[in-house]
Design brief:
Blueprint (H helix, E strand, L loop, with lengths): L9 H22 L2 E15 L2 E8 L8 E4 L3 E8 L7 E4 L25 E7 L5 E7 L9 E7 L13 E10 L4 H11 L8 E4 L16 E4 L4 E8 L5 E6 L4 E6 L2 E8 L2 E3 L4 E7 L6 E9 L11 E7 L19 H9 L19 E13 L7 E7 L2 E3 L6 H6 L32 E3 L3 E3 L4 E8 L8 E5 L4 E8 L18 E2 L1 E4 L3 E8 L4 E7 L2 H5 L3 E6 L20
Parallel strand pairs: 1-4, 3-8, 9-12, 11-19, 20-25, 22-23, 24-32
Antiparallel strand pairs: 1-2, 4-6, 5-7, 7-8, 9-10, 12-17, 13-16, 13-18, 14-15, 14-17, 18-19, 20-21, 25-30, 26-29, 26-31, 27-28, 27-30, 31-32
Catalytic activity: 4 hydroquinone + O2 = 4 benzosemiquinone + 2 H2O
Subcellular location: Secreted, Extracellular space, Apoplast
InterPro entries: Cu-oxidase-like_N (IPR011707), Cu-oxidase_2nd (IPR001117), Cu-oxidase_C (IPR011706), Cu-oxidase_fam (IPR045087), Cu_oxidase_CS (IPR033138), Cu_oxidase_Cu_BS (IPR002355), Cupredoxin (IPR008972), CuRO_1_LCC (IPR034288)
Protein backbone atom coordinates (compact mmCIF):
# COMPACT_ATOMS: atom_id res chain seq x y z
CA UNK A 1 0.00 0.00 0.00
CA UNK A 2 1.33 3.46 -0.88
CA UNK A 3 2.46 5.72 1.96
CA UNK A 4 0.23 8.77 2.72
CA UNK A 5 2.57 11.20 0.99
CA UNK A 6 3.57 8.84 -1.86
CA UNK A 7 2.66 9.29 -5.52
CA UNK A 8 -0.06 6.64 -5.19
CA UNK A 9 -2.09 8.93 -2.90
CA UNK A 10 -4.35 11.76 -4.09
CA UNK A 11 -2.01 14.45 -2.70
CA UNK A 12 0.91 12.62 -4.25
CA UNK A 13 -0.79 12.64 -7.65
CA UNK A 14 -1.41 16.39 -7.23
CA UNK A 15 2.29 16.88 -6.48
CA UNK A 16 3.20 14.84 -9.56
CA UNK A 17 0.81 16.89 -11.72
CA UNK A 18 2.20 20.18 -10.37
CA UNK A 19 5.77 18.95 -10.95
CA UNK A 20 4.93 17.91 -14.54
CA UNK A 21 3.19 21.24 -15.21
CA UNK A 22 6.15 23.22 -13.84
CA UNK A 23 8.53 21.16 -16.01
CA UNK A 24 6.28 21.80 -19.04
CA UNK A 25 6.28 25.58 -18.40
CA UNK A 26 10.05 25.53 -17.86
CA UNK A 27 10.50 23.72 -21.18
CA UNK A 28 8.31 26.29 -22.93
CA UNK A 29 10.35 29.09 -21.40
CA UNK A 30 13.59 27.39 -22.36
CA UNK A 31 12.40 27.29 -25.96
CA UNK A 32 11.68 31.04 -26.07
CA UNK A 33 14.95 32.77 -26.87
CA UNK A 34 16.17 36.34 -27.16
CA UNK A 35 17.38 37.24 -30.65
CA UNK A 36 19.74 40.23 -30.83
CA UNK A 37 20.42 42.20 -34.02
CA UNK A 38 22.59 45.22 -34.73
CA UNK A 39 21.31 47.44 -37.57
CA UNK A 40 23.85 50.02 -38.76
CA UNK A 41 22.06 52.48 -41.05
CA UNK A 42 24.75 53.66 -43.44
CA UNK A 43 25.29 54.97 -46.96
CA UNK A 44 26.78 52.43 -49.39
CA UNK A 45 27.58 52.62 -53.10
CA UNK A 46 25.48 50.20 -55.15
CA UNK A 47 25.53 49.62 -58.90
CA UNK A 48 22.45 48.70 -60.94
CA UNK A 49 21.46 49.27 -64.60
CA UNK A 50 25.00 50.38 -65.62
CA UNK A 51 25.01 53.10 -62.96
CA UNK A 52 26.41 53.35 -59.41
CA UNK A 53 24.91 55.59 -56.73
CA UNK A 54 25.04 56.01 -52.96
CA UNK A 55 21.99 54.55 -51.19
CA UNK A 56 20.92 54.22 -47.55
CA UNK A 57 21.33 50.61 -46.39
CA UNK A 58 21.29 48.51 -43.25
CA UNK A 59 24.71 46.94 -42.57
CA UNK A 60 25.76 47.83 -46.13
CA UNK A 61 23.32 45.27 -47.56
CA UNK A 62 20.59 45.77 -50.17
CA UNK A 63 18.05 44.41 -49.39
CA UNK A 64 18.85 44.45 -45.68
CA UNK A 65 19.33 41.38 -43.46
CA UNK A 66 16.49 38.93 -42.85
CA UNK A 67 15.41 38.73 -39.22
CA UNK A 68 14.86 35.16 -38.05
CA UNK A 69 12.88 34.42 -34.90
CA UNK A 70 10.59 31.75 -33.52
CA UNK A 71 7.06 32.29 -32.24
CA UNK A 72 7.41 33.29 -28.58
CA UNK A 73 10.88 34.83 -28.93
CA UNK A 74 11.96 38.24 -27.70
CA UNK A 75 13.68 40.31 -30.42
CA UNK A 76 16.05 43.17 -29.59
CA UNK A 77 17.30 45.30 -32.50
CA UNK A 78 19.69 48.17 -31.87
CA UNK A 79 19.39 50.65 -34.75
CA UNK A 80 22.37 53.03 -35.04
CA UNK A 81 21.93 55.84 -37.55
CA UNK A 82 25.11 56.78 -39.47
CA UNK A 83 23.25 58.23 -42.49
CA UNK A 84 22.50 61.92 -43.18
CA UNK A 85 18.73 61.38 -42.84
CA UNK A 86 16.59 60.94 -39.74
CA UNK A 87 15.53 57.28 -39.51
CA UNK A 88 12.84 55.07 -38.05
CA UNK A 89 12.08 51.42 -38.82
CA UNK A 90 8.69 49.67 -38.78
CA UNK A 91 8.33 45.93 -38.17
CA UNK A 92 5.43 45.49 -40.56
CA UNK A 93 2.72 43.14 -39.33
CA UNK A 94 4.07 42.56 -35.81
CA UNK A 95 1.31 43.40 -33.34
CA UNK A 96 3.48 45.03 -30.62
CA UNK A 97 0.88 44.46 -27.88
CA UNK A 98 0.68 47.58 -25.65
CA UNK A 99 4.16 48.33 -26.96
CA UNK A 100 3.67 50.90 -29.71
CA UNK A 101 7.08 52.35 -28.78
CA UNK A 102 8.57 49.51 -30.87
CA UNK A 103 6.26 49.96 -33.89
CA UNK A 104 8.41 52.51 -35.70
CA UNK A 105 6.45 54.99 -37.87
CA UNK A 106 8.07 58.41 -37.49
CA UNK A 107 5.99 61.00 -35.60
CA UNK A 108 3.26 58.41 -34.96
CA UNK A 109 4.80 56.16 -32.29
CA UNK A 110 8.21 57.82 -31.96
CA UNK A 111 10.29 60.73 -33.14
CA UNK A 112 12.97 59.61 -35.59
CA UNK A 113 16.49 58.46 -34.72
CA UNK A 114 18.74 61.39 -35.54
CA UNK A 115 22.09 61.07 -37.30
CA UNK A 116 24.68 59.78 -34.83
CA UNK A 117 22.04 58.36 -32.45
CA UNK A 118 20.70 54.87 -31.67
CA UNK A 119 17.41 53.38 -30.51
CA UNK A 120 16.64 49.84 -29.34
CA UNK A 121 13.47 48.22 -30.70
CA UNK A 122 12.56 45.59 -28.09
CA UNK A 123 9.50 43.40 -28.68
CA UNK A 124 8.02 39.94 -28.21
CA UNK A 125 6.73 37.80 -31.07
CA UNK A 126 3.49 36.51 -29.56
CA UNK A 127 0.95 34.31 -31.33
CA UNK A 128 2.38 34.99 -34.79
CA UNK A 129 4.31 32.84 -37.21
CA UNK A 130 5.10 33.23 -40.93
CA UNK A 131 6.59 35.86 -43.22
CA UNK A 132 6.51 39.57 -42.39
CA UNK A 133 8.97 42.35 -43.18
CA UNK A 134 10.64 45.52 -41.92
CA UNK A 135 11.21 48.87 -43.62
CA UNK A 136 12.11 52.49 -43.02
CA UNK A 137 9.02 54.49 -42.08
CA UNK A 138 10.11 58.04 -42.82
CA UNK A 139 10.35 59.98 -46.12
CA UNK A 140 10.77 57.54 -49.07
CA UNK A 141 13.76 55.82 -47.47
CA UNK A 142 12.08 52.44 -47.64
CA UNK A 143 13.08 52.45 -51.34
CA UNK A 144 16.32 50.82 -50.16
CA UNK A 145 15.92 50.25 -46.39
CA UNK A 146 13.93 47.02 -46.14
CA UNK A 147 14.19 43.30 -45.47
CA UNK A 148 12.20 40.20 -44.55
CA UNK A 149 11.15 38.85 -41.15
CA UNK A 150 10.82 35.04 -40.91
CA UNK A 151 8.98 33.78 -37.81
CA UNK A 152 9.26 30.01 -37.48
CA UNK A 153 6.52 28.06 -35.66
CA UNK A 154 7.18 26.90 -32.10
CA UNK A 155 9.35 23.78 -31.78
CA UNK A 156 7.47 20.57 -32.55
CA UNK A 157 4.64 22.54 -34.21
CA UNK A 158 4.28 21.38 -37.83
CA UNK A 159 3.15 23.53 -40.74
CA UNK A 160 -0.51 22.86 -41.69
CA UNK A 161 0.71 22.02 -45.22
CA UNK A 162 3.31 19.58 -46.65
CA UNK A 163 6.71 20.29 -45.12
CA UNK A 164 8.97 21.96 -47.72
CA UNK A 165 12.41 20.51 -48.50
CA UNK A 166 13.81 24.03 -48.59
CA UNK A 167 12.68 27.63 -48.61
CA UNK A 168 13.63 30.96 -50.17
CA UNK A 169 12.86 34.58 -49.30
CA UNK A 170 11.96 36.72 -52.34
CA UNK A 171 11.61 40.46 -51.65
CA UNK A 172 10.15 42.46 -54.56
CA UNK A 173 11.17 46.10 -54.85
CA UNK A 174 11.67 49.14 -57.07
CA UNK A 175 14.85 50.88 -58.25
CA UNK A 176 15.44 54.46 -59.37
CA UNK A 177 18.49 55.66 -61.35
CA UNK A 178 18.55 58.92 -59.39
CA UNK A 179 18.53 59.88 -55.72
CA UNK A 180 14.99 58.99 -54.61
CA UNK A 181 14.74 61.73 -51.97
CA UNK A 182 15.79 64.37 -54.54
CA UNK A 183 13.28 63.02 -57.07
CA UNK A 184 10.51 63.26 -54.46
CA UNK A 185 11.56 66.81 -53.50
CA UNK A 186 11.38 67.89 -57.15
CA UNK A 187 7.89 66.39 -57.52
CA UNK A 188 6.68 68.04 -54.32
CA UNK A 189 8.10 71.42 -55.36
CA UNK A 190 6.01 71.26 -58.55
CA UNK A 191 2.97 69.73 -56.83
CA UNK A 192 3.17 66.67 -59.12
CA UNK A 193 3.94 62.96 -58.69
CA UNK A 194 7.70 62.27 -58.74
CA UNK A 195 9.22 60.30 -61.61
CA UNK A 196 8.31 56.61 -61.54
CA UNK A 197 10.93 53.93 -60.84
CA UNK A 198 13.30 52.70 -63.57
CA UNK A 199 13.11 48.99 -62.70
CA UNK A 200 11.55 46.43 -60.42
CA UNK A 201 13.80 44.09 -58.49
CA UNK A 202 13.75 40.60 -56.96
CA UNK A 203 16.04 40.48 -53.91
CA UNK A 204 17.49 43.81 -55.02
CA UNK A 205 18.29 42.61 -58.57
CA UNK A 206 16.38 43.53 -61.75
CA UNK A 207 17.40 40.49 -63.81
CA UNK A 208 18.79 39.95 -67.31
CA UNK A 209 16.02 41.74 -69.23
CA UNK A 210 17.78 44.97 -68.13
CA UNK A 211 21.13 46.31 -69.36
CA UNK A 212 24.25 45.48 -67.31
CA UNK A 213 22.28 43.00 -65.21
CA UNK A 214 23.98 39.66 -65.96
CA UNK A 215 25.52 39.69 -62.49
CA UNK A 216 22.53 41.49 -61.01
CA UNK A 217 20.24 38.48 -61.39
CA UNK A 218 18.99 36.43 -58.47
CA UNK A 219 18.96 32.64 -58.99
CA UNK A 220 17.82 29.75 -56.78
CA UNK A 221 18.84 26.16 -57.42
CA UNK A 222 16.21 23.42 -57.09
CA UNK A 223 16.26 19.64 -57.30
CA UNK A 224 13.73 17.57 -59.25
CA UNK A 225 10.98 16.10 -57.09
CA UNK A 226 11.50 18.48 -54.16
CA UNK A 227 9.13 21.13 -52.87
CA UNK A 228 10.07 24.70 -52.01
CA UNK A 229 8.43 27.34 -49.84
CA UNK A 230 8.77 30.80 -51.40
CA UNK A 231 8.35 33.61 -48.87
CA UNK A 232 7.34 36.56 -51.08
CA UNK A 233 7.27 40.18 -49.84
CA UNK A 234 6.09 43.19 -51.87
CA UNK A 235 8.41 45.99 -50.72
CA UNK A 236 7.69 48.13 -53.81
CA UNK A 237 6.74 51.71 -53.00
CA UNK A 238 3.87 52.25 -55.42
CA UNK A 239 3.10 49.12 -57.44
CA UNK A 240 0.81 46.13 -56.96
CA UNK A 241 2.61 43.23 -58.59
CA UNK A 242 1.86 39.98 -60.40
CA UNK A 243 4.38 37.18 -59.73
CA UNK A 244 4.74 33.83 -61.49
CA UNK A 245 7.23 31.01 -62.09
CA UNK A 246 7.45 29.79 -65.70
CA UNK A 247 6.28 26.19 -66.17
CA UNK A 248 5.18 25.78 -62.53
CA UNK A 249 2.00 26.37 -60.56
CA UNK A 250 2.10 27.71 -57.00
CA UNK A 251 0.05 26.67 -53.96
CA UNK A 252 -0.81 29.63 -51.72
CA UNK A 253 -0.53 28.58 -48.05
CA UNK A 254 -0.17 31.86 -46.12
CA UNK A 255 -0.79 35.61 -46.45
CA UNK A 256 0.52 38.30 -44.08
CA UNK A 257 1.74 35.59 -41.66
CA UNK A 258 -1.69 33.88 -41.42
CA UNK A 259 -2.27 30.37 -42.79
CA UNK A 260 -4.80 30.03 -45.61
CA UNK A 261 -6.82 27.24 -47.13
CA UNK A 262 -4.37 26.07 -49.82
CA UNK A 263 -5.23 26.71 -53.46
CA UNK A 264 -3.23 26.37 -56.65
CA UNK A 265 -2.69 29.26 -59.05
CA UNK A 266 -0.46 30.07 -62.06
CA UNK A 267 0.23 33.59 -60.69
CA UNK A 268 -0.27 35.64 -57.53
CA UNK A 269 -1.21 39.28 -56.99
CA UNK A 270 0.55 41.03 -54.13
CA UNK A 271 0.07 44.65 -53.06
CA UNK A 272 2.73 46.85 -51.42
CA UNK A 273 3.02 45.84 -47.78
CA UNK A 274 1.63 42.33 -48.28
CA UNK A 275 3.41 38.97 -47.97
CA UNK A 276 2.47 35.64 -49.54
CA UNK A 277 3.93 32.19 -48.93
CA UNK A 278 3.60 29.65 -51.74
CA UNK A 279 4.70 26.05 -52.24
CA UNK A 280 6.31 25.25 -55.58
CA UNK A 281 6.95 21.66 -56.62
CA UNK A 282 10.07 21.16 -58.77
CA UNK A 283 8.22 18.75 -61.04
CA UNK A 284 8.87 20.40 -64.42
CA UNK A 285 11.28 19.26 -67.10
CA UNK A 286 14.76 20.02 -65.68
CA UNK A 287 15.81 23.38 -67.07
CA UNK A 288 16.04 27.08 -66.24
CA UNK A 289 12.81 29.03 -65.66
CA UNK A 290 12.23 32.72 -65.07
CA UNK A 291 10.40 33.90 -61.98
CA UNK A 292 8.92 37.20 -63.14
CA UNK A 293 7.23 40.22 -61.61
CA UNK A 294 5.28 43.03 -63.31
CA UNK A 295 2.77 45.65 -62.10
CA UNK A 296 -1.00 45.39 -62.09
CA UNK A 297 -2.64 48.72 -62.94
CA UNK A 298 -6.22 48.82 -64.26
CA UNK A 299 -6.59 52.59 -64.66
CA UNK A 300 -4.68 54.76 -67.16
CA UNK A 301 -2.13 56.09 -64.64
CA UNK A 302 1.56 56.00 -65.64
CA UNK A 303 3.39 53.06 -64.07
CA UNK A 304 6.82 51.44 -64.35
CA UNK A 305 5.58 48.47 -66.42
CA UNK A 306 8.94 46.73 -66.93
CA UNK A 307 9.36 43.07 -65.95
CA UNK A 308 11.92 42.02 -63.34
CA UNK A 309 13.14 38.44 -63.43
CA UNK A 310 15.03 35.91 -61.32
CA UNK A 311 15.93 32.31 -62.19
CA UNK A 312 14.48 29.03 -60.89
CA UNK A 313 17.26 26.67 -61.94
CA UNK A 314 17.29 22.88 -61.74
CA UNK A 315 20.49 21.36 -60.38
CA UNK A 316 22.97 20.29 -63.05
CA UNK A 317 21.54 22.48 -65.83
CA UNK A 318 24.25 24.69 -67.40
CA UNK A 319 23.84 28.49 -67.34
CA UNK A 320 23.99 28.50 -71.15
CA UNK A 321 20.39 27.20 -71.29
CA UNK A 322 18.07 30.17 -71.92
CA UNK A 323 15.24 30.44 -69.35
CA UNK A 324 11.61 30.60 -70.46
CA UNK A 325 9.31 33.44 -69.36
CA UNK A 326 6.04 32.81 -67.48
CA UNK A 327 2.68 33.87 -68.83
CA UNK A 328 1.81 36.72 -66.43
CA UNK A 329 -1.72 38.15 -66.39
CA UNK A 330 -2.03 41.24 -68.58
CA UNK A 331 -1.20 44.48 -66.69
CA UNK A 332 -4.87 45.56 -66.54
CA UNK A 333 -6.43 42.14 -65.80
CA UNK A 334 -9.05 43.22 -63.25
CA UNK A 335 -10.93 39.92 -63.44
CA UNK A 336 -7.81 37.93 -62.47
CA UNK A 337 -7.18 40.34 -59.57
CA UNK A 338 -10.75 40.07 -58.21
CA UNK A 339 -10.94 36.29 -58.68
CA UNK A 340 -7.51 35.72 -57.08
CA UNK A 341 -8.38 37.77 -53.98
CA UNK A 342 -11.73 35.98 -53.77
CA UNK A 343 -9.92 32.63 -53.39
CA UNK A 344 -8.10 33.76 -50.24
CA UNK A 345 -9.65 32.12 -47.16
CA UNK A 346 -8.43 31.73 -43.58
CA UNK A 347 -7.51 28.16 -42.66
CA UNK A 348 -9.98 28.35 -39.73
CA UNK A 349 -8.87 25.03 -38.22
CA UNK A 350 -8.94 23.89 -34.58
CA UNK A 351 -5.32 24.99 -34.12
CA UNK A 352 -5.64 28.14 -36.21
CA UNK A 353 -9.19 29.47 -35.77
CA UNK A 354 -10.61 32.56 -37.48
CA UNK A 355 -12.08 34.54 -34.56
CA UNK A 356 -14.19 36.87 -36.68
CA UNK A 357 -16.16 39.46 -34.67
CA UNK A 358 -19.83 38.66 -35.32
CA UNK A 359 -21.29 41.55 -33.34
CA UNK A 360 -20.10 45.07 -34.23
CA UNK A 361 -19.86 47.86 -31.64
CA UNK A 362 -18.60 50.62 -33.94
CA UNK A 363 -19.25 51.08 -37.66
CA UNK A 364 -16.90 53.28 -39.67
CA UNK A 365 -17.12 54.33 -43.32
CA UNK A 366 -14.01 55.97 -44.84
CA UNK A 367 -13.94 57.39 -48.37
CA UNK A 368 -10.63 57.51 -50.23
CA UNK A 369 -10.15 60.58 -52.40
CA UNK A 370 -7.52 62.30 -54.48
CA UNK A 371 -7.70 66.07 -54.48
CA UNK A 372 -5.84 69.37 -54.50
CA UNK A 373 -4.27 71.67 -51.94
CA UNK A 374 -3.26 75.29 -52.32
CA UNK A 375 0.46 75.66 -53.15
CA UNK A 376 1.50 79.14 -54.34
CA UNK A 377 4.94 77.92 -55.57
CA UNK A 378 3.58 74.89 -57.48
CA UNK A 379 2.50 74.62 -61.13
CA UNK A 380 -1.08 76.01 -61.40
CA UNK A 381 -0.85 77.13 -57.74
CA UNK A 382 -2.03 73.72 -56.47
CA UNK A 383 -0.48 70.43 -55.45
CA UNK A 384 -2.01 66.98 -55.58
CA UNK A 385 -3.18 65.66 -52.24
CA UNK A 386 -5.21 62.75 -50.89
CA UNK A 387 -7.76 62.35 -48.13
CA UNK A 388 -9.88 60.04 -46.00
CA UNK A 389 -13.40 61.41 -45.41
CA UNK A 390 -12.18 64.59 -47.14
CA UNK A 391 -9.45 65.14 -44.50
CA UNK A 392 -5.83 65.37 -45.62
CA UNK A 393 -3.74 64.24 -42.66
CA UNK A 394 -1.13 66.68 -41.35
CA UNK A 395 1.92 65.01 -39.79
CA UNK A 396 2.73 66.32 -36.29
CA UNK A 397 6.21 67.24 -35.04
CA UNK A 398 5.76 65.21 -31.83
CA UNK A 399 5.13 61.47 -31.65
CA UNK A 400 1.36 60.92 -31.37
CA UNK A 401 1.82 58.00 -28.97
CA UNK A 402 3.89 60.21 -26.66
CA UNK A 403 1.26 62.96 -26.86
CA UNK A 404 -1.52 60.48 -26.02
CA UNK A 405 0.43 58.74 -23.23
CA UNK A 406 1.50 62.03 -21.60
CA UNK A 407 -1.83 63.76 -22.27
CA UNK A 408 -0.12 66.60 -24.20
CA UNK A 409 -2.53 69.18 -25.57
CA UNK A 410 -2.44 70.71 -29.03
CA UNK A 411 -0.78 67.81 -30.89
CA UNK A 412 -3.90 66.08 -32.28
CA UNK A 413 -7.67 66.04 -31.91
CA UNK A 414 -9.54 62.72 -31.35
CA UNK A 415 -12.43 63.74 -33.63
CA UNK A 416 -11.84 61.98 -36.95
CA UNK A 417 -15.38 61.52 -38.36
CA UNK A 418 -16.93 58.04 -38.60
CA UNK A 419 -18.28 58.86 -42.07
CA UNK A 420 -17.66 61.42 -44.84
CA UNK A 421 -19.17 64.91 -44.51
CA UNK A 422 -21.76 64.08 -47.17
CA UNK A 423 -22.80 61.08 -49.22
CA UNK A 424 -22.47 61.16 -53.02
CA UNK A 425 -22.20 58.76 -55.95
CA UNK A 426 -18.69 57.70 -54.94
CA UNK A 427 -17.75 55.72 -58.05
CA UNK A 428 -19.84 57.45 -60.73
CA UNK A 429 -18.45 59.77 -63.41
CA UNK A 430 -15.08 61.39 -62.53
CA UNK A 431 -15.52 64.29 -60.14
CA UNK A 432 -13.29 67.25 -60.89
CA UNK A 433 -15.03 70.09 -59.01
CA UNK A 434 -14.63 70.96 -55.33
CA UNK A 435 -11.42 68.94 -54.97
CA UNK A 436 -10.06 70.94 -52.04
CA UNK A 437 -9.89 69.06 -48.76
CA UNK A 438 -9.71 70.07 -45.10
CA UNK A 439 -6.38 69.54 -43.32
CA UNK A 440 -5.75 68.36 -39.77
CA UNK A 441 -4.13 65.90 -37.38
CA UNK A 442 -7.41 64.22 -36.52
CA UNK A 443 -7.49 60.72 -35.01
CA UNK A 444 -10.29 58.21 -34.44
CA UNK A 445 -10.78 57.21 -30.80
CA UNK A 446 -11.80 53.59 -30.15
CA UNK A 447 -12.94 52.02 -26.85
CA UNK A 448 -10.76 49.16 -25.61
CA UNK A 449 -11.94 45.68 -26.68
CA UNK A 450 -14.75 47.06 -28.84
CA UNK A 451 -15.38 45.42 -32.19
CA UNK A 452 -14.94 47.63 -35.23
CA UNK A 453 -16.22 47.33 -38.80
CA UNK A 454 -14.53 49.69 -41.26
CA UNK A 455 -15.72 50.00 -44.85
CA UNK A 456 -13.05 51.60 -47.07
CA UNK A 457 -14.68 53.08 -50.19
CA UNK A 458 -12.68 54.16 -53.25
CA UNK A 459 -14.04 57.23 -55.05
CA UNK A 460 -13.76 58.82 -58.48
CA UNK A 461 -12.42 62.10 -57.13
CA UNK A 462 -9.97 62.83 -60.00
CA UNK A 463 -9.67 59.07 -60.64
CA UNK A 464 -10.56 55.70 -59.20
CA UNK A 465 -7.54 53.63 -58.19
CA UNK A 466 -6.66 50.53 -56.20
CA UNK A 467 -5.35 51.31 -52.69
CA UNK A 468 -3.56 48.89 -50.33
CA UNK A 469 -4.43 49.95 -46.76
CA UNK A 470 -2.28 48.89 -43.80
CA UNK A 471 -3.32 48.97 -40.16
CA UNK A 472 -0.49 48.96 -37.61
CA UNK A 473 -0.80 46.96 -34.38
CA UNK A 474 -3.52 44.61 -35.68
CA UNK A 475 -4.61 41.94 -38.07
CA UNK A 476 -8.13 42.28 -39.41
CA UNK A 477 -10.60 40.10 -41.29
CA UNK A 478 -11.56 41.12 -44.83
CA UNK A 479 -15.24 40.16 -44.53
CA UNK A 480 -16.41 41.68 -47.80
CA UNK A 481 -15.27 43.40 -50.96
CA UNK A 482 -17.04 44.65 -54.06
CA UNK A 483 -16.98 46.90 -57.09
CA UNK A 484 -18.99 50.14 -57.16
CA UNK A 485 -20.62 51.81 -54.17
CA UNK A 486 -20.99 49.93 -50.89
CA UNK A 487 -24.67 49.29 -50.17
CA UNK A 488 -25.25 49.13 -46.38
CA UNK A 489 -28.69 47.59 -46.92
CA UNK A 490 -27.61 44.69 -49.14
CA UNK A 491 -23.84 44.09 -49.03
CA UNK A 492 -23.46 42.97 -45.37
CA UNK A 493 -25.71 39.96 -46.05
CA UNK A 494 -23.00 38.71 -48.46
CA UNK A 495 -20.16 38.98 -45.92
CA UNK A 496 -18.00 35.94 -45.25
CA UNK A 497 -18.06 35.62 -41.45
CA UNK A 498 -16.78 32.02 -41.38
CA UNK A 499 -13.31 31.96 -42.97
CA UNK A 500 -12.52 35.42 -44.38
CA UNK A 501 -8.86 36.19 -45.09
CA UNK A 502 -7.03 37.62 -42.08
CA UNK A 503 -4.29 40.10 -42.88
CA UNK A 504 -2.65 43.43 -42.03
CA UNK A 505 -2.83 45.07 -45.49
CA UNK A 506 -5.92 44.98 -47.72
CA UNK A 507 -6.10 45.91 -51.40
CA UNK A 508 -9.21 48.05 -51.88
CA UNK A 509 -10.26 47.38 -55.50
CA UNK A 510 -10.31 50.13 -58.13
CA UNK A 511 -13.69 51.87 -57.98
CA UNK A 512 -14.83 49.53 -55.20
CA UNK A 513 -14.81 48.87 -51.46
CA UNK A 514 -13.49 46.52 -48.81
CA UNK A 515 -15.04 45.83 -45.40
CA UNK A 516 -12.74 44.81 -42.53
CA UNK A 517 -13.45 43.81 -38.94
CA UNK A 518 -11.18 43.69 -35.90
CA UNK A 519 -11.35 43.70 -32.11
CA UNK A 520 -9.63 46.78 -30.63
CA UNK A 521 -7.75 44.88 -27.90
CA UNK A 522 -4.32 46.50 -28.40
CA UNK A 523 -4.06 49.85 -26.56
CA UNK A 524 -2.04 52.61 -28.20
CA UNK A 525 -1.91 54.87 -31.24
CA UNK A 526 -1.95 52.85 -34.44
CA UNK A 527 -1.28 54.27 -37.89
CA UNK A 528 -3.73 53.51 -40.72
CA UNK A 529 -2.55 54.49 -44.19
CA UNK A 530 -2.39 53.70 -47.87
CA UNK A 531 0.81 51.71 -48.50
CA UNK A 532 1.42 53.48 -51.81
CA UNK A 533 4.18 55.84 -50.67
CA UNK A 534 2.96 58.49 -53.10
CA UNK A 535 -0.50 58.61 -51.50
CA UNK A 536 0.79 58.40 -47.92
CA UNK A 537 2.93 61.48 -48.62
CA UNK A 538 -0.13 63.26 -50.00
CA UNK A 539 -2.04 62.73 -46.74
CA UNK A 540 -3.94 59.45 -47.26
CA UNK A 541 -3.64 58.40 -43.63
CA UNK A 542 -4.96 58.73 -40.09
CA UNK A 543 -4.50 56.84 -36.82
CA UNK A 544 -6.64 55.07 -34.25
CA UNK A 545 -6.30 55.90 -30.56
CA UNK A 546 -7.27 52.69 -28.78
CA UNK A 547 -7.94 53.41 -25.12
CA UNK A 548 -6.41 51.45 -22.25
CA UNK A 549 -8.32 48.50 -20.84
CA UNK A 550 -9.13 47.92 -17.15
CA UNK A 551 -6.48 45.22 -16.54
CA UNK A 552 -2.91 46.02 -15.48
CA UNK A 553 -1.57 44.39 -18.65
CA UNK A 554 -4.14 46.19 -20.84
CA UNK A 555 -2.53 49.62 -20.69
CA UNK A 556 0.23 51.13 -22.81
CA UNK A 557 3.60 50.27 -21.30
CA UNK A 558 5.79 53.15 -20.10
CA UNK A 559 8.11 54.49 -22.83
CA UNK A 560 11.69 53.15 -22.97
CA UNK A 561 14.43 55.38 -21.57
CA UNK A 562 16.16 55.71 -24.97
CA UNK A 563 13.03 56.84 -26.88
CA UNK A 564 14.37 59.39 -29.41
CA UNK A 565 13.64 63.00 -28.43
CA UNK A 566 11.64 65.21 -30.77
Amino acid sequence: MASPGGFGSFSGRIHLFVFAFVMFVCCLRAEAATKNYQFDVQVSNVSRLCHAKPIVTVNGRFPGPTIYAREGDRVIINVSNHAQYNMSIHWHGLKQYANGWADGPAYITQCPIKTGSSYVYDFNVTGQRGTLWWHAHILWLRATVYGAIVILPQQQTPYPFPKPDNEQVLVLGEWWHGDVEEIVKQGNAMGLPPNMSDAHTINGKPGPLFLCSEKHTFAMEVESGKKYLLRIVNAALNDELFFAVAGHNMTVVEIDAVYTKPFTTPAILIAPGQTTNVLVYANGAPGRYFMAVRPFQDVPIPVDNKTATAIFQYKGIPNTVLPSLPQLPSPNDTSFALSYNNKLRSLNSRNFPANVPLKVDRKLFFTVGLGKSVCPTCINGTRLSASLNNITFVMPQTGLLQAHYSNMKGVFTPDFPDKPPKAFNYTGAPLTANLFTSHGTRLSKIAFNSTVELVIQDTNLLSVESHPFHLHGYNFFVVGTGVGNFDPAKDPSKYNLVDPPERNTVGVPTGGWSAIRFRADNPGVWFFHCHLELHTGWGLKTAFVVEDGPGKDQAIRPPPKDLPPC
